[in-house]
Each structure stands twice: as structure tokens, then as C-alpha cells.
Amino acid sequence: MASDRHGINRGGDLFNRPSTKEERKLFPVWTLIVIAGCAALWLFGAKLYEERMAAYETYAAISQAAAQTTFFPGVVVDGIDLGGMTMQEASALFSSRQQQATSDFSLVVASGDKRWRITSDEVPMTFDVQDVLERAYAVGHVGTLEERYAQIVEAQQQGKTFVTRFTYDRDAIAGLVDIIGDSLDVEAKDATLDAFDVNNRTFTFTDEQAGYRIDREKLQSDILAALDEGAYDRVVTPSGSSVEPEVTRAELEGLFGKVASFSTTTTKDNDRNTNISISANALNGRVVMPGETLSFNDCTGQRTGEKGYREAGAIAGGILVDDTGGGVCQTSSTLFNAVVRADLEIVERYPHSWPSSYVNRGEDATVNWPSLDFVFRNNGRFPVFIVAWYADQVVTVEVYGEMLPEGQTIELESETVKTITPSDEVLYVRDESLPAGTRKAGRQKRTGYVVDTYKVYLDAEGNEIKREKLWTTTYRASQNEILYN
After folding, report:
1. How many Cβ atoms from other residues are within 10 Å of residue 246's Cβ?
2. Main-chain dihedrals φ then ψ at residue 269, nearest 5 degrees
3. 3 state SS of 180
4. Which stretch of DSSP H or E encloses residue 129?
5. What pTM was estimated for this model as a whole?
6. Alpha carbons 403 and 400: distance in angstroms, whole number
7. Which of 110, 139, 202, 225 lies most in the core, judged by the most C-beta atoms within 10 Å?
8. Is 132 helix (H, G, I), strand (E, B) or coil?
9. Residue 370, preceding bond cis, omega within 30 degrees?
10. Cα(297)–Cα(378) distance, rounded to whole angstroms?
11. Ranges 54-58, 164-168, 206-210, 463-467: which has the least confidence
12. Closest by CA position to 475, among listed 449, 456, 451, 454
């Protein structure tokens, strides 16, 4: 092999040493890229693995945290952090607090020496503790895992607060207020008519008394305000106002007196006057309460000799006969005229067979035991008192009580609207009670009348205010009769 002057074997170096292009062919650029990509891929995988492991560890931690069966820290009910408590433990705790609240629920209402204590025994209470605990327990236990975890974190960082409340039966309070009010209310008492002295014709009266009424609306409001505020040590005092009576004694004294009076003149028949006197005494002192009735027959009873009644002339079947108690119709007619002038209600009244001599036509009231009666009703506000007596051939009936308004008086006016002339022909009427072959006079010839009677109201000066028609009375005409057998 030839060598150059420097002794270098050029042929061998050239054979053994690659050129630059050859070196590039032995180590291409893409190889470096692959290596770099592999390294990057390895690093990415490692990073991905690390992140997934971290996520798994976080998921595991969240799952473990969310799997707790207790309240989470930061969940606060009525200022108590229930973190770590089970529902059973929290329920027991608040049950004790509920019992204490029930025990504390108490309020006193006092007035003078009277006291009332309002407690849960009288006022039913309702608590929302269980509902609140269930809502508090739902924090971190309800929703997706992510939602639950977010709730847990929020509770730990910011807190989650709940408040329990209770309600009570407010209607029960209203009922208790009524009980208290009924106990404290004092009814106003009007002055009243106490008695009437028949002999002195004087009235006595009771004094009026002011009342007192509790302001129930304010009392209820005060009680509710104290209970709502939890001011159980507060003593509530009821307030009220006086209630004035509607009628005073002075007013009553001006209302009462003699309402009406009527007198009729009798005959000189002592037996008849005796009967009139006895029947008048039976009426004297009678009291008729508002709404009650008075019956003439009930007052006198059956007119009998045992009671002192005597035989005297009386109309029976249109014929004048002697009858025990004859003449008492004059007393009943006098009573009628007095009570109608006192503006009392006439319930039952019958006319005689023919007009009486002692009163105007249409203004009589006959009686006969037990079929015919005179009855009136006290249609006023107060009792009425009857004063009746006979003296010197005059029978008088007075009515005492609440006088008519504004000095008014009442009079009767009767108008004969028709006169019935009887026939002159004599009627023969067989009467088998007579002995055979005998006869006697029966009814006498009498003129008949149709009479309208009016109740006339007069003012204090005697001027007519109004008039009301009471009734129409018919007195039948009668022919002369001969009774025979």
C-alpha cells in the first residue's frame, strides 16, 4: 500500500472512515424525534396516572365523607352544632329541650286577689323540631355525590343554621280570655220597681248599680304578645271600663204613677152592693207582671154564699133573674174601663144581652161563672197594680204602673150605628119547667143596637192623637114573651 510523505496510509483511512453523508445516514433525525416523543408520552402517562390516582383518592375521600350517618360539622340547630351526632342523639337532645319549653310556657293573669295561670295544660302546643332536624340532616345526605360534597364543604366553611319554632292554640287563648272576662265582668243593674203599697198608693224602687266590663280584645292581645315574646315572667293585668245602667232610680220615679182610673155608680140595692164590694176586694192589690194575664173569674172564684155573696138581680138568657153574686158584672165592667184606659191588652170580653145603665153602650164586660170571663194581659214593660174598692154606691178601679208617654190619656167613645126596633107582636114560648097549665112573663120588649167602640188617644192638652176601633157590639132586640106549659 502506498503512503504519502507523511507516512499516512491514505488508502486504508479512506476505506475505514465514513463520510459526513454516511454518518447522517447511520443516525437520522427522525430517531431523535421518536425518542423525544416516547419520552413525552411516558411523561404524559405518568402525569395522567398521577392525576387519576389523585382523583381516585379524592373520590374515595368524598365518598367516605358523604357516607357518614351523622350530622356534618357546621350544621347548627338553635345554636347547637350537631356535627358528629346521630339523628337519634339529636332527637333525644331536642326532646329534652322541647319538654323544657313546654314546662316554661306559663303566664299569669292577675286582677286584685284573683289570679289565673295559663300553661301548656290549657293551651295545646305544637313543635316543628322533627321537621327541622330532618332538614338539617339532609345537608350532605341528599343529592348527587358532588352536590352532597359541596354541601358538606359549605357547612364546614360557612355553617348551615336552622331554627326550631313552636306554635300554640291561639283559639284556646280566646276561650281562656272569655273565662277570665266572665269572672271579672260585673253586670250593670238597672233600677227596678221593688214594691207598691196598695194602702198608700206609693212605689218603692231599688237603686241602679254601675257595672264593669273587661276589655277582652286588649286582654287577649296582651297575653298573645307576652307568649310570643317568651316573656313568661310577665304578669298581665286586665283592663276594662265601667258600664252605666240603662235605667236610674230617678228615671223610674218619674215614670210610675196612676195610669188610669174608672168609677161607676151603683144602685141602692144592698145585696147587689155587697156583691160588688166583695168582688172589688177580690181585685184589690192584684199584681200583673209583664206578659201575664188577669182573669176576673180567677180572682173572685165562683160566687157563692159561703164567700158572702148574696142573691141579687142578674141577666141570664136575656131575662133579669135573682142570682147569687148578682151585680158583679158592674165590677167587671168598671175593671174593663180602667184597664183599657191604661192601654192594656183585652184578651176576652163579652157584652150583656142589653145595654147597662152604669156604662155607655159597647163599654160593658159581663161575666158568668164559669162560662163568661173578662181577661186582660199586661203588655207593658213593668208590673201593673190593681186597686179596687166600693164606697157610698160607687165602685172604683185604679191601675198603677208605668204611665202613658208624654202625659197622654185614653178615652172610650162609642157610636150607635144602628137601632133595631123590635116587633110589637107577643111571642109565646113553651117552657116545660113551668107547672102544667101555667104561664108567666118571659123576655120584655127591648130595642136592639149595633155599636162601634173606639179607643181614643189624647195628648197632654186633650187633643186627639189617634183612635183605634176596639169592636162592634150588637145588642139584640127582643119581643115581649109569654112562657107557658
Report:
1. 11
2. -70, 110
3. helix
4. helix 129-137
5. 0.62
6. 8
7. 139
8. helix
9. yes
10. 17
11. 54-58
12. 449
